[in-house]
Amino acid sequence: MRIDILTCCPELLDSPLNHSIIRRAKDKGLVEIQVHNLHDYALDKHHKTDDYAFGFGAGMVMMIEPIDRCISQLKSEREYDEVIFTAPDGERFDQKTANNLSLKQNLIILCGHYKGVDQRVREHFITKEYSIGDYVLTGGEMPAAIMTDAIVRLLPGALGDVESALNDSFQDGLLEAGVYTRPAEYKGWKVPDILLSGHQAKVEEWLYEQSLAHTKARRPDLLEGID
pLDDT tens-digit profile of 141-162? Predict the structure, then answer.
């Protein structure tokens, strides 16, 4: 898989894209991630990527020219499955979305910034728009990093245990049950006996019941439509 991220603040992506699971996936050749500085595609000598909005209202708007030049160059080199824009009014990004995108080959993620992006970019270049929550951030770099992390960890071989991602919260529509590790008893607090039984079928049944109860208590909305 290849992910190209377009941003006017590339330094904000340095750490999240070069450590932990993403770093290991890159080292294994499972994913190639390229960050493109939109200032490099600006037309003027000051490498400007934003300007005032037409009409009334405060705030700067990302210009169409640098974005067009960057996307056009990338598309001249390969075909892309989706061109994604991080936007507060976009579709909610969730685990199902991450699963679907992890099956793609080439993705572009455009990070929003300032007051937003010239609407013509959204109308003529963008194929998907995603939001990570009902709040506004300074820029789309953090949402882009979050989406990239959620996608990459689903790639076969990215995690040490192939079943790890399958047991994550939301993967089956439920929240994950509580997990325990050694020691089996600490300050009188004990790990549930069933988890020490070695009986896989009973353990799996218990974990499902715990997951269901946890979801009912924390996120009952996830159970809507589930028999």
Answer: 999 999 999 999 999 999 975 5
